Amino acid sequence: MKPYMDQVAEATLESVSLSRLMGDHIEFVDGVESARTLRASPRVGARMPAYATAGGKIQLAQLDRQELIDLFPEGLKPLTSHTATDLATLLKELRRCRDRGYAFSREESTEGISAISVPLKDSHQRTVAALSVVAPSARLPHTRLDPTLSLLTEVAAAVRSRL
């Protein structure tokens, strides 16, 4: 997986992370850090609420409504002023993520940090992880999403063909 992550990091000049869903959280299992001075550093081994990260949202989007309700019986806790705090809003966002095939997070888990993520699927089309580009928000504006998404989608397809 590392060569694919290196490819994305080199092309975008940003940090790349690999995460997997662990109940209501994601765990960062691997990462490549940007060489830029101002960067988002991958936190390998760290866990974050899945609903507040792009990688978590794209993985949650593959679950059905009842599974999602069961995952968050106590609701959603804000990590920043941008974090979704009610389940209805999250469910709508996850439906959009599922429909478009990617998730985006703008300062939902950490102020000043944004990310775009695609699912990594196995040969049975089950989502097994998420691949994300993570960067300071100023360097990941909406105008930069299309080329980054194209690259992530291409890499995800290459990974799927190897699984």
Q: Would you list the SSEs in sequence order as H and E? A: HEEEHHHEEEH
Strand sequence of the main sheet, in spatial order? Answer: 3-2-1-6-5-4
Please bin the fraction of helical residues: 25-40%
Spans of at least 5 consecutive residues with low confidence: none
Q: Which structural category fits the helices and strands?
A: alpha+beta
Coarse shape: globular
Largest sheet: 6 strands, antiparallel
Query: What distance lies between the first and last C-alpha atoms, to the nearest angstrom?
Result: 10 Å
Tally of helical segments: 5
Radius of gyration (CA) equals 15 Å
Mean pLDDT: 93
Q: Could you give the count of β-strands? A: 6
How large is the share of residues in beta strands?
25-35%
Keywords:
163 residues, 5 helices
Structure description:
α1 (2-12) packs antiparallel against α5 (145-162). With 163 residues, the protein is of the alpha+beta class. It has helices at 2-12, 54-60, 65-71, 87-100, 145-162; strands at residues 15-22, 25-32, 47-49, 103-106, 113-121, 127-136. It is 35% helix and 26% strand. The protein has five helices and six strands. The mean pLDDT is 93. β4 (103-106) and β5 (113-121) form a beta hairpin. The protein has a six-stranded antiparallel β-sheet, with helices on both faces.
Write the layout of secondary structure elements.
Elements (H helix, E strand, L loop, with lengths): L1 H11 L2 E8 L2 E8 L14 E3 L4 H7 L4 H7 L15 H14 L2 E4 L6 E9 L5 E10 L8 H18 L1
Antiparallel strand pairs: 1-2, 1-6, 2-3, 4-5, 5-6
Helix pairs in contact: 1-5
Q: What's the short story on this structure?
A:
By secondary structure, the chain is an alpha+beta fold.
